[in-house]
User: Fold these one by one.
Assistant:
Number 1:
Amino acid sequence: MGTLNTYRAGADEDGHFGIFGGRYVAETLMPLILEVEQAYARYKDDPAFCEELAYYLQHYVGRPSPLYHARRLSEHLGGAKIFMKRDELNHTGAHKINSTMGQILLARRMEKPRIIAETGAGQHGVATATVCALFGLECVIYMGETDIKRQAPNVFRMKLLGAEVVPVTSGTGTLKDAMNEALRDWVANVDNTYYLIGTVAGPHPYPTMVRDFQCVIGDETRTQMMDAEGRLPDTLIASIGGGSNAMGLFHPFLDDASVEIIGVEAAGHGLNTDKHCASLAGGRPGVLHGNRTYLLQDDDGQIYDGHSISAGLDYPGIGPEHSWLHETGRVSYVSVTDAEALDAFQLCTCLEGIIPALEPAHAIAHVMKIAPDLPKDHLLVMNLCGRGDKDVFAVAEMLGVTL
Amino acid sequence: MSFETRIDRLFKNLKDQGRGALGVYVTAGDPDFDTAQKILNGLPEAGADMIEFGMPFSDPMADGPAIQAASLRALANGQTLKKTIKMVRNFRTRDDVTPIVLMGYFNPIYAYGVDLFLEHACEAGVDGLIVVDLPPEEENDLCLPALKAGISFIFLTAPTTTDARLPRVLENASGFIYYVSIKGITGTASSTAAQIKPNIDRIKAKTSLPVAVGFGIKTAANVAEFTSIAEAAIVGTAVVNIIADHLDDDNRAQAGLVEAVHKFVGELASGLRETSK
């Protein structure tokens, strides 16, 4: 495929990135989807909206997050100069709040008093419950029963914040089922409810809108790297479930041809097993949750339940723009197993004193694979998009430690 | 539309008879292929004028617990879209009159391949398609190819569909218009004929196509009520519940299941015939 003039122009007016994206929703929701699109178009460049968002990102979320040179990890691996974009230091402990803050300001302008959201690892649920508490809005979070068990601390956090956490038992009780249930709620409560989607997926305008709110990660990285090293990074690496942290880091660099960009999918027990959630490596295009994208599915088009050690990556699809970037070849997508992520989790903790979430541990695992063979002046940025406090109990269990 | 389908003929005939139509929804392959085939085959005799035949999907976002469970039962017993089409083909060897509309979600059709699906559905005797997650905005995917292949593409309209939007929904509509009577998923809330009449009238002012009302219609009295303001009433969850009530702990069909479904459909139809317009 030839090189495009820009990789940053999408989505088109119908919400498509090439053949991906779109608005595959029931008619009952369609008028509301169009309303969200119009509202976002109206406010995204509105000075008062941007000013308010910037205020909360700085004073409430704690942005900008540092771009940290991980010296000991770099020395240990013996190659590239590794930087970590510290989005785990955001209020609530992950990148999710970048988008929930933007969307809650939009929901308020749309005068929707009730907010619903789906969550897998619970980070998006906590970030949503947090902004709802901040602005006094009703909050209902749909979470798979399996995830509720493995992410107990986040469930309690959401409840403390005043949210109702609804356990989802359909399917295997993970993120995809939670999203189905949130869509069902939305259809029944269209008049007063805003669906605050957590990743760069769903019907247009969500993939574009969530991406735009997450681009603060990449925009800051560009400025910080120029300040620190006087040039752009050579390689960007981020983990991908739906793909919002990755898109936020990648998108501002897509048109910089010198920057190599790598997304890391979760290979679970391995791509040769049926227990993974690497949609690009192991799936094919299909339609689910409002958009066309790569999905894990059988020959009949039935969706598989993904598997990952990390609840946040445990989704059988991926944001449509990632599918497009995969097919155009601008971004390389690789995968990392549960075991490799667990090793990376421990290495990062020991060497840097930072306990990463299991999601970015996948990105660290890929850094461990490629950094040793890169020259010492190679600037490598990985997105440390969440902290691992929520995972310590699950990790203890996997390591056979009784707490 | 230039082609006349079984759907068109049904509504023409019923208009002459002065009564509305009963549409019955069942999920293909629920609880298993053979039982579902028997249910399907006997529906016209039981009193169904038109059949909405559900294509099971792993993630039925617009359906309530009853139809979700029906889908999962069918899939657990190996139902595929190929088998669903085969069931229609089997049905057509005995009945060449009753319209069958396949209802479901796009991904299984997309996975099958749109052109191949339309070819096979056409051959098997499918009359129309209701695909919940294909609004007019995505009409290129299936709606326009279906019309070309001679299969009606039935659009949903909802209480949220505004006057400004309605012409867009009606633009490529064929067969009939499916009016979703509530804001919500299948098998949950209900509305009354009086509540939805303004919206039905709004649709009728803009199209000559028949209007079928669905979602929340459960009894013979409901069927009578809604066919007084629209050309058809569609019952789904209440029928699926009869199936669920006749399963053992392993979701296997118990004796009398097929008869119970047909008996219930007969009751629904009786309401319709007694109160013809």
Note: The interface with chain B takes residues 14, 22-32, 170-171, 176-177, 180, 183-184, 187-191, 285-290, 295, 297, 299-303 of chain A (CB under 8 Å).
Number 2:
Amino acid sequence: MFKDDYRKMNETITPGSELLKRTERSMEEIMNKKDAKRVSAKMALALALAGVLALTGVAFATGAVESLFGWFRDWGYSTTADIDQLNELADSGFEAESQSTQYNGNVSAELVQAYYDGYQLIIGARYQEGASKVILGLEHDALAMTRPDDPAFCATKHEPGGVYINDDGQIPEKSKLLPPYIIQWMTDEQIAAFEKMYAENGEAGVVLYTAGASDHIAVEGDDQNRLVPEDDHQNMQENGVMLRYVDFGDLIEECRDKEQLTVTLLMGEGVSAVRTDKDGIWVAGQPLGQLEFPYVVRKNEQDTTMLYGSYENDVYSAKAEVRVSDVSTRVIVDVTQPAEWLEARSDPKQWKTVEFIRMLYVVQPDGSMVSFDGMPTENGAYRWETALDLIEGQEEIRIRPYYSISGYQESEDIVISLENGISSVK
Amino acid sequence: MQNRSLRADDWAAEALRKYSDMVYRLAYAQVRNRTDADDIFQEVFIRLVKSSPEFESDEHMKAWLIRVTVNCSKTMWLSSWKKRMVFWEDKDLNRIPAEEAPAGNEALEEALDSLPVKMRRVIHLFYYEEMSVDEIAEALSEKPSTIRSQLTRARKLLRKKLIGEEAKRRVQG
């Protein structure tokens, strides 16, 4: 009976299609990056320009990463540029807008590295999460939230010592009178004082003001939060320290080519109230607001090479832009689309009846394909983009459309030559 | 030089196709909300392609995925402030919406919520994945006696909770 109910309940719990797509894309990117021997995009270009295409393999030293570009290298980004030099650049390319990198002494967000070349912004940050204030006692107003008979609030209730049994190796159990996610913000002395209060009164209370890293990082110019990081790698250390490396990918127009950008690290602040009595542990919380830690990131002098290509026929036109820097190669293709394409794209039922460009691929020198991400633009066109690693000996970047019915169309390839640094159209 | 991608015949694509529901359900059984389950799901499959382990068999791969899903769930539990900062008003936002859940399971949902995560994990592997105690013990690197005792305690707690709910309903009804 229980088994049947449990199984039935679980039938509806499946990963969403968006999650599956996102995961597949991430896996594909990692596999491509892992297996391809990479050379610096710029080096490939420079050597191709010089007509020297017999590149030697480049061995990457990998290992513990403590720096922005060390991390990038380990994650398979294309760079054989001087990592130390890039790190040096990232170490000095910013400054705090104010002295407020700390809040109440033990909560902080600090920019530790930043790279901005006008098109790409990558940052490394260190957050110290923790409690800015811990107030023991039963007097604080916030404890009203924990009164289950107050209709204005609901509190979550735990059985003392019954719910959180710490034999998962998760959080050392220090008190059966407090849940672990509260204990972690308290010192041993505060926990002991809480237990003493309970022993003396049969009831104990504590209110904690805590702060933690926000998912969002505010970037000047991105007023409508359109900038979604392409990579956001978070590494939780001990004692509430989080290291974070973020590549914002292709910057929106408003953030491009500025002399400097203000990047604001954010932390969310909240209050938790805990009251423990003979009936249970009552916990309630409320978000309070945001702590801001602004930094100015200066544009560096790194070169970026732009290459272009296009294709046009009676039905549509496509324009491709390739941006090659020390850090990455990025391909962006804008494709105009007739109204029926627009409609068919949003209706999978039409994918087998209406012929339209459904996907774009970059054809790698070994014949494998790297797919693009696409999204509609405001003017009704469709924009496709991808980050790419140039591969040893690569002479061109070849972009191929994939049609809904007929599949790949080689005759419509856009070919951007790396040999002479200009685009050529087949 | 061979560039691997997720083609139809690719081992990683096959793993995703075959085990995505299993990984997702196991993640959800532990963290009990979609946002965290999504994160764990993605992390597990990313780890799969990053480490590309040599699997001797399908069962080996399945055991690996179970182990990594459990480990990622533990890390998730420890990792982020926001995950532990219980804002009461947000508590139910990421649960499976009522209209998606089979009717009449609220009491079971609540009973599962009240279990420690390790018990939910064992309950899920035993009742949903239909693994034996020995198989669970092997996948989680635990002693079979530990798993057996967790299972027994979980059943007792669930029974107690579910009987309590039923009694409450009768009184209210």
Note: Chain B touches chain A through 57 residues (CB under 8 Å).
